Amino acid sequence: MNKPKMILFDYGQTLINESIFNGLAGQRALLNRAVKNGSGATAEDIHNFVEELEQEIGRYNPNTVESYKYEIHNFNFQRYINEYFELEFDMEPWEIEKIFWDNASPAIATEGIEELLEYLAINNIRTGVISNISFGEHSLKERINELIPTNHFEFIMATSDYVFRKPSKYIFQFALKKAGLKPEEVWYCGDNPICDVDGSVNAGMTGVWYTGAVRHKSATPKSHHIHIENWKELIHILNS
């Protein structure tokens, strides 16, 4: 096994351990910041409507999420919701989504990730991020930089800004192009067996299945991969 020139990471439950998503809490916090609520909708009204829409498009349905190939940017989704309920805000779109996200899903860095990233930097192994996420790159970068301020990520890619979602080969190929590297020179770490592990392996990378922050293991990767339960294991593998 060749040592990597670069390791790419997933975001949620890989770099960052997010709390269980509470969309209603996010809607309540956001509605408190609205300067106009023309429809008089409650946070519960908005939340229930959003849940209906999410089921319709299959974005967060566990039975269909793996076949969901394209990312809808939250700016567009939020605009639909705001105009539908006649909501107005005196903030930029990224500020609106940050308020929602911070309240819907507080988070902390996964245990040992800062030590791993320091090790990689010292050993001249480059790093970057590809996340399947509807929130924009601005918000994603801000959250990662707040929670892991010592990171040296060359790029942080939110799939909402690039159309294609993992496990699509196109998002991995684009990251390789940004890095200027061949697939066999890159490892990809993530918690999702299909999107992260099988997706990266199918793109020619080495897949690393990290399960240290996984709540429920519902499946296992179909492809050959490295399995770790903590970041110290990855350091050990790289040292061997």
Automatic annotation (TrEMBL):
UniProt GO MF annotations: metal ion binding; phosphatase activity
Cite the entry's keywords alphabetically: Hydrolase, Magnesium, Metal-binding
Q: Which cofactor does it need?
A: Mg(2+)
**Would I find Metal-binding among this entry's keywords?**
yes
Which superkingdom does the taxonomy of this entry point to?
A: Bacteria
InterPro entries tied to this protein:
HAD-like_hydrolase, HAD-like_sf, HAD-SF_hydro_IA, HAD_2, HAD_sf, PGP-like_dom2
Q: Does the keyword Magnesium apply?
A: yes
Q: Which GO terms describe its biological process?
A: small molecule metabolic process
Q: What is this protein called?
A: Putative hydrolase of the HAD superfamily
**What organism, scientifically named, is this protein from?**
Anaerocolumna aminovalerica
